[in-house]
Amino acid sequence: MKDKFFKYIHELQDSIVAGLEKIDGKATFQEDVWERPEGGGGRTRVIENGNVFEKGGVNISGVHGKLPDSMQKYFGVEDADFFACGLSLVLHPTNPMVPTVHANWRYFEMYDKDGNIVDQWFGGGQDLTPYYLFEEDAKHFHQTCKTACDKHNPEFYPKYKARCDEYFYNAHRNEGRGLGGLFFDYCKATQEMSMQNWYDFVTEVGDSFLEAYVPIVEKRKDLEYTKPQRDWQEIRRGRYVEFNLVHDKGTLFGLKTNGRIESILMSLPPHVQWVYDHHPEAGSEEEKLIEVLQNPKDWV
């Protein structure tokens, strides 16, 4: 399974990068292949200063070795080895009318001291973080997520949509990071779902990513915007940074397992503002976004 999924994320990285370069039309992804001293490595691809994308990354990695003590305590195990692989992407467009997007699909195995698999699971999801609310964009993104889920289980979309709203939540701000999408983790074999079934589901979601995001980019990338709208985007990007550094489990896992810091923090936007006690004007488009972030909607 690990070889199969590792091969899949290599191919998915290639297809997503090609699709994004096509829509940007100017910048291309720079590749950085790296190795982790304890075992494994990855292939980081970053785009910067394009026509559409100010900064973005589409990264894959496959790492293995002894599970660090801090993570052994987290999982409640002793003397465990691990293998983890996944694709993680974040895209920060220049135009504040185009939403930021994040996605991740991953697979994890844990072994006893004799090398036997003692646990294995899939995780992942995709979520949208706009700066201005276009309801048809939210509906399109969520409908694409629901269509992918429904092919495998009609209960998946409402379940993983709710988990996404719960997970990507800045509790210290009492607001969601964005409009959500899907979030699933610890997807393990059961009587109903084999690991092959989970593989089929996760790859279905992965394959749906470009369909979920690219039509939104096409629709919004040439819209005009003002300096105050750009300022609002940078203030909201600050909330994105706060979530990734304070709450995100993937960032935590990477830092605890001596992950490659440049690849872990590529999710951070290049231009950000923190304005003291900032509040949008009453009745403004900016306030409209905040209301939805504080009260998640059912978009489909």
Essential attributes:
alpha+beta
Quick rundown:
With about 300 residues, this protein is of the alpha+beta class. It has helices at about 1-25, 70-75, 135-150, 155-165, 195-205, 210-220, 225-245, 250-255, 260-265, 285-295; strands at about 30-35, 40-50, 55-65, 80-95, 100-110, 115-130, 170, 175, 180-185.
Structure report:
There is one protein chain. With 300 residues, the chain is α+β, with helices and mostly antiparallel strands. 42% of the residues lie in helices and 26% in strands. The protein has ten helices and nine strands. A seven-stranded antiparallel beta sheet has the order 1-2-3-4-5-6-9. Strands 7-8 form a two-stranded antiparallel sheet. β5 (100-111) and β6 form a beta hairpin. α1 packs parallel to α6 and α3 (135-150) packs antiparallel against α6. The two termini are 33 Å apart. The relative contact order is 0.15. The model has no long low-confidence stretch (mean pLDDT 95).
